[in-house]
Structure formats: structure tokens, C-alpha cells
């Protein structure tokens, strides 16, 4: 496998006055699975198009391995792209579709057929070689698009929301399939999605984008447990974000005063915070312990239940805090077999461990 | 509980009866004023005073005159088709890849020529190619020639006029197909390693073939029944078969021979259509992708793919000769020679008609260059009762045709777009047949039937005749509009308590308003510009505008014609502009 690293230096793109991508730096290691995650319009597809050569950057550079390909045409880049709607050629059979990149590389016809057939076996669809794209289901088309992209072993594979059109079950199956192929080929993959669960389960690293910039780059765990900005905390999973003030800093931990009443608490923080700084304390719903009012020691917040949702394995309880200025809260716990839970209007007490709370500096963008 | 009693009172109409009521007016119209007249005309070729006779056919084949004319007709039509399709392809390609704003402007230009009367455009070439016309004056002034050349009344002039007349039709037909080609496919090809030439020839071009085929047949069938251009720009060596039919009816009143020539023409058109259906299928004509007709792996297909691969390699080799080109991300952009070529074509198809504007104000009459300023020609037009009467007659007929076509065509379109009925394809083919049947045959047949019914020279007769040829356009437009309409909106309205009639009134029609208006305009403009039927059925005294135009142009070429042309041009521009605004407003919603 001829997989390569990708380096993006100060790459930028505007459309008229709209900054689709602000100056961006990014390095993707050989064989890495990197996901570009973000809401629509955040610049992830722009970045992908610039790497693929489907759009021309306004500045910066794109390097594949050590080759500068910033202004090269797509067919000279040795990349593979899996398009959102698959972009299978409707007038060619499946085998011809898969053999197309080999034919373009002037590989002898017999050899091309053999390798295309191999690729069909890899995606476990050897029997559809002579069919046309419109005769296949969405999931099958998706796998053919993958095969067409893998068959010529490009050094980098770019995927633009490849599973967006599939239903949930098929999507989960295809996620495993793509991971399997990634492992078997060891390819460098850059994967665009707006589905945070997909990003969490598939990626080595996630590059979370917002308004044309990289908001945070790190492992799924980094982004989920150590968000650097409110945007990241809010985008990845549900969270409770409580406004607070830093009172003291002790190594990796701080003590804070929450809300107007100055409720005392502790949280994890990096070393950049100083006493007096405004922060938000992020607590994930599953880390918030909830009990009927007066039954927990060390309760920090009082609240009233406004809604209860059983989502299957988890039960979510939505609450209004007793302190007016605090935002609405949510707690989650494993659904009990007895079905016993809280009711609307119940008064509850909330607590958490200092090691489950993360301080996010106020000064960060957003 | 009025709702409940309502529901029990009105017993639901059986489905077949409802379907029948929707399509019956259209079928009756076509049977009465298309099938019967054409059948009558054709049958006239088999009778003489004593009954059954083949005398007309004996006359037809007695000399080689008619076959020679048929051969000339086929030759001119074929060359016109090839040239039109070849020139229209880059134009349609550029339009389909342009940015939305640019696309709007380019389509406007094409539509303007498309809707500008064939008569005006043919007349413009008379002025341009005439002895004292634009081309001769230009060549004289730069000293290339010292005497005016004989440009007009030649095969070249006819071909120029024909191609000019057919180009907009070819562009619009191809554009319909190209718009539906996924823009990602050529891009996908390039990420898979295809060079620009290979991406175009092996991916885009094969996918655009149905459009090329549809454009070719539309142009060919229209060209084969054309008589305006060869009559105005050709000599007797460029006489086309339609002109022979006109002569037989208007000058010698030989109905038998006219019928026999019509049979000949119809047979040729039928053969062309049968061949087309064998190769491409009729479904491609209505913009539907031929579902179910999967192109199996055939030897012909493989050979085609091989040739295209070679063409692709060759063009990439050519591109490679220019250093640097095709290697950067700019390769996806439109190359500038293509842009220049397309703009040249667009200017060439728009300019001739616009030349009428300066000429209509010129004291030099039809001579080029125009000099001085006068409104004399307009005054003459306005003070000549035949022109003003013709204008009113045309407006009345076009309005009547528009309304009647909508009343008959819209229900039929609803049925064809939504109901799942047996024999739908055959029904659609029948409904569209007035477009593809040579207009001259319909016109002559109608003339014969109208004479029996005393409808010659009446507005009613013209409205009926024009509705026959306009209704297919209404049906086509409305079927396309309805295909984009989400029928769940009707179900939503009905679930919210609206009766079917109310949901039609409050939901369906308001959303479809723009589409319906453009269908109406289509019918209106087609009728307003219709010459063939009017040529016979308007009688001597009550001419429509195109008929009056035709009579004037064939008798004498006067500057008043330029004034009339200018008025027509302005009128059509306003119509298209309005239609375009309506369309944009409906899209913005």
C-alpha cells in the first residue's frame, strides 16, 4: 500500500465575500483515519475539495507526501474520492465503473478486469459485475463507490459524507465495513461528516470545524472529555454548561463559584486559568447524579423535573434549576429494569465529582 | 354536520369515468381536427371523379420532378440537422455548466431567437444577403469585391437561414438533457485519473447522447416540413416538398396530387420516427430517462466506447501540446476558445432579427447601411387597415387558442402525469403527434374540412386549428411541471379538511400558477406566430399577422416589413421577459 501523509499549510478559500475556509494548517499522518466534522457551511467540504483539486485555493499549499499538489489537476494527484451521491457512471456496468480508474492508468484490459473483480470480492458483491448502477440498492452503490476508489490504491482517500443517504442500520453496517477496509489496506482516509456519532466511532482523530476554521483537533476522547471551546462542548453530545468564576488554581484542578449565588465546586482545567477568570463548567449528563431532594449528601444544585425521556438504554431527565440564571439541566442514567423513574414536577438534588467537571475558559472564541 | 352529509351525498365518481372526462376533450379535438382531416387528405389521393384511382400517384411518379424535390428536401434537412446539432452542442454545454445568473441570461438570448418569428428571421436574412444588403455592402466597402455578389437565392443562403432557424430549437432540446447530467460525474472521473479529454468523451458525451438524438429528430422533422426559408432565400433549385403541396392546393387545386405528395412526406417522417424509436425510444423526447430499457452489453456499445476512448486520448494529446494546460485545477474550467465560439454563435443567432430595428427607422429603406431617421414606415403600417386588422385578428386568435389549449390540455396533463392508466405511452404519442406530423399536412387537411364546415376565414376555425398544434406544447409543459409537484401537498390539504376541489383551488393551482402561465404563453406565442394553418384557413380577407407578413414579403419587399418585424420583436421580448419573471418568482418561493 502506497499510503501517504497529507500536509495542508495556510490553505484558504473565499467565494466573493464569504470566507469558506480561513487560513488553515493540518497534518494527517500516513494511514490515519481523520474525520472533518462540523455543521453545514463550516468549511469541511471546502477543505476536502481543495485537497481533491476540485476547487482552486486562494492561498496556501497542499502536500501529498512531499509533493506540492496545490494547483495540480485532480487526475494528477493520486487521490481517491468517494462522493456523497456516489457518482457512479450510469452508462457503464459495475465492472466497467470499477475498472475505469485502471483503464485511465493504461493498465491492460485483462489485468484491469481481474483487479476490478477482486475489488468486487473485497466488498462482497462479486455477482453484480454486469449490472448497471441504477439496478443496485443504495447500500450496494455505496460499496461499489468504495471499491472503485480503492481498486487503484490511491495514496489518500477522501470521503464526502459517503453514508449520508443511507438509513441508520445500513449506515452502522457500512461504518464497520469502511473501518475493516481501512485496516486491511492501511490507507490514509479523510472523512467528512456532520454526524458526530459517526465521527466518534470511526476516527483516529477528529478535526472539528466551525465557520471556516478548525475549532479543535484531537482524538474523539480529547474532544468529548476535554473540549477547548463552548462550541466543541455543545456540538459533541449533550452537556450541562454552568457559568462560573475561578476561585483558586491547584495544579490541574480549580475550585470555582457557580452562578450568582457562588455555589462551590471543583473542576479539571489546564494551567492557563488564573483566579478571577470567568469560565463555564461542563458536566456530561451521565456524570450528573440525581436524587430526590434532601436524599444526597454534598448536593450542589436543586432543580425541578420538567420532562423525562426513556431513550432505551438511557433515561434522560430534563430539569429547571432553582437558580433562575442557570441554564436548563439534563441528567442521564441507565434505565432501570423496574421502570422506576422521576416524574414531572419532582424536586431533585444534583451532585457531581470534581473530576467529571471540565472548565472551559470564557475567553475562548464563541 | 354538513361535512358528513356531504360525504354521503356525493357518491364517488368511478375512476375510469373521471379519467375519461379529463382526456375526452383532447381526444375529441384530435380525432375531429387532426385524424379526420389528415385521413381525408390522404384518402383524396386515392380517388378521382369516378371513385378509386391511382391517377395521382401515376402523376407523382410520371416524372422525376417530385422525387427530385423529395431528394433535395431530404438533403437540405439532413445538412441542416447536422450543422444545427454540431453548432448547438457547445452552446447547450456551456449554458448547462454556467453559473445560475449567467445561465439565466444565456437562456434568455436563446429563447428570444427561439420565439422570434421564423418569418422575421428569414426576412432578416433577405436583407442581410440581398444585393444591397449588409454582407455585400461590407465586402464592397473593404474592397474585396467591386460588384455586389449573388449571395441570396442559393443553397448556401437556404442552409444559413435553415440552420439559423433551427439552432435555438436544437439548443433548448439538448439543454433539457444536459441539465440532468450530474455535474459530479466528470469531476469523479478526474479524481479517478481521467484527463480532461477522457473525462469529457467517455463520461459526459455518452450521457448527453439522448439529448443529441432528441435535438436531431426535432430539427429534422421541423426542417423537412419547412417552406418559409427556401421560399424567401432559395432559388427554384432549392424548392422543398412542402412548397409543392402549397402550389397544388393554392394554384392548381389538385387535391389528389396534394394528397399523394402528403403521403410521400408522411411516409418519410414515419420511417424516421420508427428508426428513432428503435434506437433511442420515444421516452427520451419527453425528458424521461428510458426506465427499464437498460442498455445491455452489446457489441455496438463496446465499439462506441472504444471509439470514444480513442477520441478522448486524441483530444488529451492535443491539449497536451499546449504547455501547462490540463495539468492544473483550472482544467475543470471552460476553456476560452469554447467561450468565444459559443458567444459568436449566440451573437449570430440574435443579431439578424435586431438589424430590423435600425432599418425600420432608416430613410434608405431596406438598403444597408441605414441613414437618416424616419417613422414613415411605422405610419404606413398604422394607416394601412390590413395591418391593423391582421394584428387584431392575430391577438384574438392567439388569446382564444391559449385559453382553449389550457382548458383542454391541463386536465389531460394531470391524467398523463398522475394516473396509472394502461396504454399511457401510446396515448402520449398520440397527444404529441400534432408536433411531429408535418404541419403542412395538418393545414391542408384542415382547410378541406373547414371548407365543408364553412369555417374558412373565421376566427373560430383558426382557433380550433391552432389549438390542435398548440395543445401538445401545453400538455408537455404541464406534465413536466406536475412531475416536479409534490402530490403529498394535496393529501396534506385534504387531511386538513379541504375537499379535492378546494385543495385544487387553494394549494395546487397557486403553486402551479407560474408553470400554467408559461404553458399558456407557449400556446399563445405559437398561435401568434403560426403561418401554415393560417396560410390556408384564414381565407383571402381575414389574414392573421404572419399571413399578412407572408403575403407582403412574397409580393414585394418593403421597409414596412421591417417596422412590423420590430414591433413583433418588442412584443415577443416583453412576453418572454414576463414569463421569465414569473418563473423566477415561483422558484424564489
From TrEMBL, chain A:
SUPFAM superfamilies: MOP-like (SSF50331), P-loop containing nucleoside triphosphate hydrolases (SSF52540)
Signal peptide (residue range): none
Keywords, ordered alphabetically: ATP-binding, Cell membrane, Membrane, Nucleotide-binding, Translocase, Transport
Enzyme class: translocase
Domain of life assignment: Bacteria
Enzyme Commission number, as recorded: 7.6.2.11
Catalysis performed (reactions): ATP + H2O + polyamine-[polyamine-binding protein]Side 1 = ADP + phosphate + polyamineSide 2 + [polyamine-binding protein]Side 1
The keyword Zinc is assigned to this record: no
Gene3D superfamilies: 2.40.50.100, Nucleic acid-binding proteins, P-loop containing nucleotide triphosphate hydrolases
Residue intervals of the ABC transporter domain: 6-236
Subunit structure: The complex is composed of two ATP-binding proteins (PotA), two transmembrane proteins (PotB and PotC) and a solute-binding protein (PotD).
Function statement: Part of the ABC transporter complex PotABCD involved in spermidine/putrescine import. Responsible for energy coupling to the transport system.
Family to which the UniProt record says this protein belongs: Belongs to the ABC transporter superfamily. Spermidine/putrescine importer (TC 3.A.1.11.1) family.
Protein name: Spermidine/putrescine import ATP-binding protein PotA
Gene for this chain: potA
UniProtKB/TrEMBL annotation, chain B:
Domain ABC transmembrane type-1: 70-276, 391-579
Keyword Isomerase applies: no
Record keywords, A-Z: ATP-binding, Cell membrane, Membrane, Nucleotide-binding, Transmembrane, Transmembrane helix, Transport
The protein's name: Spermidine/putrescine ABC transporter ATP-binding protein
Classification via SUPFAM superfamilies: MetI-like
PANTHER family recorded: ABC TRANSPORTER PERMEASE PROTEIN (PTHR42929:SF5), INNER MEMBRANE ABC TRANSPORTER PERMEASE PROTEIN YDCU-RELATED-RELATED (PTHR42929)
Family: Belongs to the binding-protein-dependent transport system permease family. CysTW subfamily.
Membrane topology recorded in Swiss-Prot or TrEMBL: Multi-pass membrane protein
InterPro entries: MetI-like (IPR000515), MetI-like_sf (IPR035906)
Subcellular location: Cell membrane
Coiled coil: none
One example GO MF annotation: ATP binding
TM spans (from-to): 20-39, 69-94, 106-131, 151-177, 212-233, 253-276, 340-361, 391-415, 427-451, 463-482, 503-525, 560-579
